[in-house]
Write a structure and sequence with these properties.
Length: 340
C-alpha cells in the first residue's frame, strides 16, 4: 500500500495490537521500527509504545508521549495523533491518573498545534468511555461547534462515545441541537447520527467500557476494538466519512451488557433484592467499611451505571463472585434462618 493511503495507518496499529499491554516485550520490535521509511517511522513508534503500555498507568511513558506532543512538526509528519491517543490509553488505568490526563489534554488544546486538536476529543472519549463526566462533556460540546470540521466531527463522535449506552439526557439534547445546527452539512450530520446511535446503544443496556470487575480487569479485545476505531477517526475524512465507514463495526468488540443478572446454581434466573449505589474506595480501611453510598434497593436484573456498585440486600444467598457485575451465580446460605 502507498504511504498516502489511509489504510496504511492500520499496519503499525496491527503490529501494536500484538503487544497490547505487554510492556517491555515491545522493545525489540520498536528498535526495528526505527529502520522504516521516515514518513511512517515516528507514527509506528508512537503506536507501538501506546499499545504496549495501554492500561498500565506508566507515568514515564505518559511523559515521553507528552514530550512528542510538544514538538513542532515538519511537513508531512503526523505522529502526534497516536501520541495523544497513547496518553489516554496509558492513563486510563486508574481514577487519579485519568483525571490528571483529562487536565493535561485541556492544556494540549490551549498550547498544542492544529493537528493535536483533531485527536484530543478522541483521547477524552477513550478516558471517559460510557462515563459522561460533566467537565469532559462541556469541553466536547465546545469543540463540536469548532470552525475546523475535523475537530467538530471528532468531538461529535466523542460525545457519542462518552455517553455510549447511558441514554444520557444532556448529551442526547446536545446532539439534537447539533443536528439542527449542522442540518446543511451532510458529513457532520452523519457524525451526529452515529453519536445519537451510540448514546442509545442497546436501548441503554450496553456499555463500551473495556474495564470490568470494578476496574480490576481490562478486556484486551474490547480495548483493541476501541483503539482501532479511534485510529480510524484520526483519518476522519478518508475513513469514517469516506469509503471505509465499515470500520465503525470495530466498536462491536467492546459492547457488553451493563446489567447485573443473578442466577442460581442451575443457571436459572433468580430475582433477589440488591442495593445499588455510588462505589466508595475502601482500600486499606480497617474493619468492614461501607462499600457503597447513597444506595437504592432494586430487584435483579438491574442496570449499573459507570461508578456504580451492587451488593446483596439479603443473607439468604451467598454470591460465588466477590464482585457483583454481569452474570453472578448465587448459592443458598446454609446458616440462614428466616425470621419468624
Amino acid at each position: 500500500a502507498s504511504i498516502k493511503s489511509p489504510l496504511t495507518k492500520f499496519l503499525p496499529l496491527g503490529l501494536g495490537l500484538l503487544y497490547l499491554g505487554k510492556q517491555e516485550s515491545v522493545e525489540a520490535t520498536a528498535e526495528v521500527s526505527k529502520t522504516f521509511n521516515e514518513k511512517i517511522r515516528k507514527y509506528c513508534d508512537m503506536t507501538l509504545l501506546s499499545c504496549a503500555y495501554a492500561g498500565t498507568g506508566n507515568v514515564l511513558k505518559v511523559q515521553n508521549l507528552l514530550w512528542n506532543c510538544a514538538q513542532h512538526l515538519e511537513k508531512g509528519e503526523n505522529y502526534q495523533g497516536p501520541a495523544v491517543l497513547g496518553i489516554a490509553m496509558v492513563s486510563m488505568a486508574e481514577e487519579l491518573g485519568l483525571d490528571m490526563a483529562i487536565r493535561t489534554l485541556e492544556h494540549l488544546l490551549q498550547y498544542g498545534e492544529q493537528n493535536i486538536w483533531w485527536s484530543v476529543p478522541l483521547a477524552l472519549a477513550l478516558l471517559c468511555i460510557s462515563n459522561p463526566k460533566i467537565n469532559v462533556m462541556d469541553t466536547l460540546s465546545r469543540l463540536s461547534h469548532d470552525t475546523d470540521s475535523e475537530v467538530a466531527s471528532a468531538a461529535i463522535i466523542s460525545l457519542g462515545l462518552i455517553g455510549a449506552g447511558t441514554n444520557n439526557a444532556r448529551i442526547a439534547g446536545m446532539l439534537r441541537n447539533l443536528s439542527s445546527y449542522y442540518y446543511k452539512d451532510a458529513t457532520l450530520l452523519f457524525c451526529v447520527r452515529i453519536a445519537q446511535g451510540l448514546v442509545h446503544l442497546g436501548k441503554g443496556m450496553l456499555t463500551l467500557n473495556p474495564y470490568h470487575s470494578d476496574r480490576f480487569l481490562l478486556s484486551p479485545v474490547a480495548l483493541a476494538g476501541l483503539v482501532t476505531f479511534l485510529h480510524a477517526c484520526l483519518e476522519m475524512k478518508a475513513m469514517v466519512l469516506g469509503r471505509y465507514h465499515i470500520v465503525l463495526y470495530f466498536l462491536v468488540l467492546a459492547m457488553q451488557p451493563r446489567m447485573l443478572m443473578t442466577v442460581d446454581e442451575n443457571l436459572k434466573p433468580l430475582s433477589v433484592p440488591v442495593r445499588v449505589g455510588q462505589a466508595v474506595d475502601v482500600v486499606g480501611q480497617a474493619g468492614r467499611p461501607k462499600t457503597i453510598t447513597g444506595f437504592q434497593t432494586h430487584s435483579t436484573p438491574v442496570l449499573l451505571a459507570a461508578g456504580d456498585r451492587a451488593e446483596l440486600a439479603m443473607e439468604k444467598y451467598i454470591p460465588l463472585s466477590p464482585i457483583l457485575e454481569g452474570f453472578v451465580i448465587l448459592k443458598e446460605n446454609p446458616d440462614y434462618q428466616e425470621d419468624s
